[in-house]
């Protein structure tokens, strides 16, 4: 197949394994494009894309904007902090106003889970979810899978441990769906207070001891402690979290083989990941960022190609 | 379905040899010349020419694969999007003479897209086009080949099919067939 099954990217849950394969294969082509002397192709020159961010973002927003520009799309940016949302405008009104300026696609980040799904039902444009609350962050999962494949080849049967704040992480959920659809085994690891109840029902292994998780896995995807989403105390102190769950060089050296360490950023150095790991050869954190542009180009290109 | 053989294995072999000698005649020792095969099917012809050139001249000519999917003018206008192929060019074309190689020249739109894609690798000194089959009556763009194997008179209701033994076909051959009536 050369076409996606949906005209929106709302979550990995809705994608078929064939969709994911198509996105990853197309991203390989775009990775070659962004390493050319001229990094731009004209595919989306008749498309206008609005990046609507109701939540803070550095990487994702820049990455989307670069992907859009490298595909020759016209780009408008919007962030809620200095907009009429503060004056009480609803989400649908805001987006419809933007769309009436002839915008074809909307890339949205929102703090409410399901906001992009709601938008997809109520407006005409293609919607790309750039993170909705603690729910999904599909492009991050796709770029993680792309980076893992680049390093390890086919992910069928590979073991991936997701370590850290699983409860508040949209990256974790999207990663679980994506990796399982690609045939990988997934484990989640973190303090019991930061693991969602019934997470086993998604078919993942659960581990409380980070050393055991590291010994089991081929790839450790370490997540940030999302203090901004934590209304109550889930662990006594960051120092204690770091002591029990922080991944450091010594732990990796004790393993009988080399594993790959990933992190979706932003890193809290010395909390979930020690600097000597983040800056080591184990880590492919900066490759993830580079691949993010290629994967997002693939997503935008393929969504634009789907006939309404 | 009507099917007419226009080139057989032996004729294709003769054409490949002719192509090589024409290239040697025009490009001397290939110091400043590169070959680019157009994905997906031009690369099979390119590989054969590179192999043949090496046999004749003993030189390995720089060659690469160029995919123009992202530069096509029919994106979002086709029923189904085309799947991109690998671009593999490990040199710049800046100041070089480039020979674009494809199997069939039909409307000229792929070649236009390919020239657009090629510019991302620099500004070439000169660009030439080499095709095995030139369908001379069906052009949409003002594009002509510098080297062609055979020139055929075909109309839009016909296909030109190029078969290669290296791709699992019984032997190298070029056929003209009728498109099925809908």
UniProtKB/TrEMBL annotation, chain A:
Sites where the protein binds carbamoyl phosphate: 59-60, 109, 137, 140, 265-266
Reaction(s) this enzyme catalyzes, per UniProt: carbamoyl phosphate + L-aspartate = N-carbamoyl-L-aspartate + phosphate + H(+)
Molecular functions per Gene Ontology: aspartate carbamoyltransferase activity
Annotated positions binding L-aspartate: 87, 170, 224
Pfam families: OTCace (PF00185), OTCace_N (PF02729)
The protein's annotated pathway: Pyrimidine metabolism; UMP biosynthesis via de novo pathway; (S)-dihydroorotate from bicarbonate: step 2/3
Residue span(s) of domain Aspartate/ornithine carbamoyltransferase carbamoyl-P binding: 7-150
Signal peptide (UniProt feature, chain positions): none
InterPro entries cross-referenced by the UniProt entry: Asp/Orn_carbamoyltranf_P-bd, Asp/Orn_carbamoylTrfase, Asp/Orn_carbamoylTrfase_sf, Asp_carbamoyltransf, Asp_carbamoyltransf_Asp/Orn-bd
Keyword entries, A-Z: Pyrimidine biosynthesis, Transferase
Enzyme Commission numbers on file: 2.1.3.2
Entry keyword Isomerase: no
Domain (Aspartate/ornithine carbamoyltransferase Asp/Orn-binding): residue spans on this chain: 156-303
Function in brief: Catalyzes the condensation of carbamoyl phosphate and aspartate to form carbamoyl aspartate and inorganic phosphate, the committed step in the de novo pyrimidine nucleotide biosynthesis pathway.
HAMAP family per UniProt: Asp_carb_tr
PANTHER family, per the entry: ASPARTATE CARBAMOYLTRANSFERASE, ORNITHINE CARBAMOYLTRANSFERASE, MITOCHONDRIAL
Subunit structure: Heterododecamer (2C3:3R2) of six catalytic PyrB chains organized as two trimers (C3), and six regulatory PyrI chains organized as three dimers (R2).
Family the entry assigns: Belongs to the aspartate/ornithine carbamoyltransferase superfamily. ATCase family.
Protein name per its UniProtKB record: Aspartate carbamoyltransferase
Source organism of the structure: Algoriphagus limi
Automatic annotation (TrEMBL), chain B:
A GO MF term: uracil phosphoribosyltransferase activity
Signal peptide coordinates: none
InterPro entries per the UniProt record, alphabetical: PRTase-like, PRTase_dom, PyrR_bifunctional
Enzyme Commission numbers on file: 2.4.2.9
Residue ranges of domain Phosphoribosyltransferase in the record: 7-164
Entry keyword set: Glycosyltransferase, Transferase
Domain of life: Bacteria
Protein name (Swiss-Prot/TrEMBL): Bifunctional pyr operon transcriptional regulator/uracil phosphoribosyltransferase PyrR
């Amino acid at each position: 197949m050369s076409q996606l099954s949906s005209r929106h990217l709302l979550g990995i849950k809705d994608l078929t394994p064939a969709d994911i394969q198509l996105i990853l294969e197309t991203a390989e082509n775009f990775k070659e494009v962004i390493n050319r002397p001229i990094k731009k192709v004209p595919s989306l020159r008749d498309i206008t894309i609005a990046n609507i961010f109701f939540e803070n973002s550095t990487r994702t927003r820049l990455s989307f904007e670069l992907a859009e520009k490298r595909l020759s799309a016209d780009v408008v940016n919007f962030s809620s902090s200095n907009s009429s949302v503060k004056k009480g405008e609803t989400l649908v009104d805001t987006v419809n106003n933007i769309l009436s300026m002839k915008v074809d696609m909307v890339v949205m980040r929102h703090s409410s889970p399901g906001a992009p799904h709601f938008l997809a039902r109520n407006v005409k444009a293609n919607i790309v979810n750039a993170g909705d609350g603690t729910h999904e962050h599909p492009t991050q999962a796709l770029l993680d899978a792309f980076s893992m494949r680049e390093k390890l080849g086919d992910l069928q049967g590979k073991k991936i441990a997701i370590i850290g704040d699983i409860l508040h992480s949209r990256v974790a959920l999207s990663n679980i769906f994506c990796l399982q659809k690609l045939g990988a085994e997934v484990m989640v690891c973190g303090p019991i207070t930061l693991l969602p109840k019934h997470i086993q029902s998604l078919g993942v292994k659960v581990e409380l001891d980070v050393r055991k998780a590291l010994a089991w896995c081929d790839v450790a995807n370490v997540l940030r402690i999302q203090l901004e989403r934590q209304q109550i105390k889930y662990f006594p102190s960051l120092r204690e979290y770091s002591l029990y769950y922080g991944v450091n060089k010594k732990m990796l050296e004790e393993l009988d083989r080399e594993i790959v360490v990933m992190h979706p950023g932003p890193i809290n150095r010395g909390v979930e990941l020690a600097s000597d790991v983040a800056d080591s050869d184990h880590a492919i954190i900066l490759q993830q960022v580079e691949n993010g542009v290629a994967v997002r180009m693939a997503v935008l290109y393929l969504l634009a190609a789907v006939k309404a | 379905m009507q099917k007419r053989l226009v080139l057989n294995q032996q004729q294709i072999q003769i054409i490949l040899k002719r192509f090589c000698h024409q290239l040697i005649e025009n490009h001397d020792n290939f110091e400043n010349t590169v070959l680019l095969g157009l994905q997906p099917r031009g690369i099979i012809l390119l590989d054969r020419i590179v192999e043949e050139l090496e046999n004749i001249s003993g030189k390995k000519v720089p060659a690469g694969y160029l995919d123009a999917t992202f530069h096509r003018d029919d994106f979002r206008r086709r029923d189904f999007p085309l799947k991109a192929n690998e671009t593999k060019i490990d040199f710049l074309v800046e100041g070089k003479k480039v020979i674009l190689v494809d199997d069939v020249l039909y409307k000229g739109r792929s070649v236009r897209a390919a020239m657009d894609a090629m510019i991302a690798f620099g500004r070439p000194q000169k660009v030439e086009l080499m095709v095995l089959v030139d369908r001379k009556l069906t052009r949409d763009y003002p594009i002509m080949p510098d080297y062609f194997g055979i020139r055929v008179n075909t109309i839009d209701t016909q296909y030109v099919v190029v078969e290669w033994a290296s791709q699992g076909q019984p032997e190298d051959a070029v056929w003209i067939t009728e498109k099925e009536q809908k």
